[in-house]
Design a protein that fits this description.
The chain is an all-beta fold. It has one domain. It is built from no helices and 5 strands. Strands 1, 2, 3, 4 and 5 form a 5-stranded mixed sheet that branches. It is elongated.
Amino acid sequence: MIICVECKRELRCDKNSVGADFGFGHVYASDRWVCPECGKLVLLTNDNACFDLHYTFQNEYLKMKQEEE
């Protein structure tokens, strides 16, 4: 179960097959969840990344921000 900390509501699955894209084909498969109260979105990813160089495995990709050094 995935719960919104602010609203104390169970999140519901909003979209399947979303790739968390860390660049250069480094992608974590995930599902996107939404809080029915406040609308905040959460990605719940797999533990292991896959090599998806041509970005064809998922229906949608979310480019992740890289940490500044």
